[in-house]
């Protein structure tokens, strides 16, 4: 059974962020395991852990990830990936992933993960994708049995530092009728530009398969350019460092006036979605140029300028977070109202890799859900 999600109330109302219908675009499967599950699975394979107490282990992940460095942050995944090397364990982790998101009010999510990292137990690439899809479907049935609904699509991910991206792209397309809705590329960003994976991106484009690319997190504007023009990215994984292309020109008592560089203007005008993950961006140092507190995060700047911002968790275990918590933290930092949060969710719905009719239905479900909650709170 999942641990009950911590409840976060919208300031000045009886509405909880948890009850708001939400869309999750950027959430890693291997970054969302329950600490108790890690303890149990590690014991079966004889894997030594920093602690076998779930609460202490959860604290260890959060403390270790709070490093100010993306490579150090990524090192915490050695443990979670180690317990995800069998079909049984992949099914279980994916099943729990779905129910945990539903407990947080998510009605649609895209789960990203790298099949090439789950082969040491003897499974093939196709078998690991099938195992995760089985877990997703069981979890979806669990949610439906509880009187709720959720839909999950897989984002099959290649690792930037390996040479398997074309093979992983072919895998993703091969499973487009078996739950895979898009392709991603992740891992240490600096030194591994999207241009090194042109064969994969060419293949995906020729097969009309959508991509999101991690960029503008561990590296800057050149990485974002590569994601857009080499990777043909429809969304930017994080993309927060697009703010480096925004210059403050002057400020008076009423407003701050800025100018956008060509790249920032392109991202804004083309409505390329930013998969922002506030807590994670602080942990990895992605926003260090602006400060080390959430109020320093350029999220609000990007929102006020009209960029397509969305709110994500990145890795719920490493950041000890949920989308509801991220929404509450942003509200504390920037005084957002319920209408702002509806915009964030509608932005996310429009950016999903679903067919357009399904995106429209999802947007209607979000608006209807917000309206119903507001009516009940009056």
TrEMBL record:
Its EC number is 3.5.4.4. Residues 21-367 form the Adenosine deaminase domain. Its cofactor is Zn(2+). It comes from the Bacteria. Keywords: Hydrolase, Metal-binding, Nucleotide metabolism, Zinc. The keyword Hydrolase applies. GO terms for molecular function: adenosine deaminase activity; metal ion binding. Coiled coil: none annotated. One of its GO terms (cellular component) is cytosol. NCBIfam families: PRK09358.1-2. Belongs to the metallo-dependent hydrolases superfamily. Adenosine and AMP deaminases family. This is adenosine deaminase. The lineage of its organism: Bacteria, Bacillati, Actinomycetota, Actinomycetes, Micrococcales.
């Amino acid at each position: 059974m999942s641990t009950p999600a911590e409840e976060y109330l919208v300031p000045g109302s009886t509405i909880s962020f948890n009850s708001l219908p939400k869309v999750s675009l950027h959430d890693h499967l291997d970054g969302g395991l329950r600490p108790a599950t890690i303890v149990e699975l590690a014991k079966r394979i004889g894997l030594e852990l920093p602690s076998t107490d779930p609460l202490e282990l959860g604290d260890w992940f959060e403390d270790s990830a709070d490093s100010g460095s993306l490579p150090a942050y990524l090192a915490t995944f050695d443990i979670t990936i180690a317990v995800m090397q069998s079909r049984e364990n992949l099914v279980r982790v994916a099943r729990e992933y779905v129910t945990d998101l539903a407990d947080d009010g998510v009605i649609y999510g895209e789960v990203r993960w790298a099949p090439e990292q789950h082969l040491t137990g003897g499974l093939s690439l196709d078998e690991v994708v099938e195992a995760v899809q089985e877990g997703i479907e069981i979890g979806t049935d669990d949610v439906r049995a509880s009187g709720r609904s959720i839909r999950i699509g897989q984002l099959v991910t290649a690792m930037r530092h390996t040479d398997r991206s074309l093979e992983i792209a072919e895998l993703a397309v091969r499973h487009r009728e078996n739950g895979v809705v898009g392709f991603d590329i992740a891992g240490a960003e600096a030194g591994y530009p999207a241009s090194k994976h042109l064969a994969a991106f060419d293949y995906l484009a020729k097969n009309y398969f959508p991509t999101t690319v991690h960029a503008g997190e561990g590296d800057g504007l050149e990485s974002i350019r590569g994601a857009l023009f080499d990777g043909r990215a429809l969304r930017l994984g994080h993309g927060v460092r697009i703010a480096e292309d925004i210059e403050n020109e002057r400020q008076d008592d009423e407003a701050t006036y800025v100018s956008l560089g060509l790249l920032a203007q392109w991202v804004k005008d083309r409505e390329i979605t930013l998969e922002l993950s506030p807590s994670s961006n602080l942990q990895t140092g992605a926003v260090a140029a602006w400060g080390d507190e959430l109020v320093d995060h350029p999220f609000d700047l990007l929102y006020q300028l009209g960029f397509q911002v969305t709110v994500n968790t990145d890795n719920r275990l490493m950041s000890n977070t949920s989308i509801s918590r991220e929404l509450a933290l942003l509200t504390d930092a920037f005084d957002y109202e319920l209408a702002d949060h509806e915009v964030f969710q509608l932005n996310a719905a429009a950016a999903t890799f679903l067919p357009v009719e399904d995106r429209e239905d999802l947007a209607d479900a979000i608006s209807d859900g917000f309206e119903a909650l507001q009516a009940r709170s009056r």
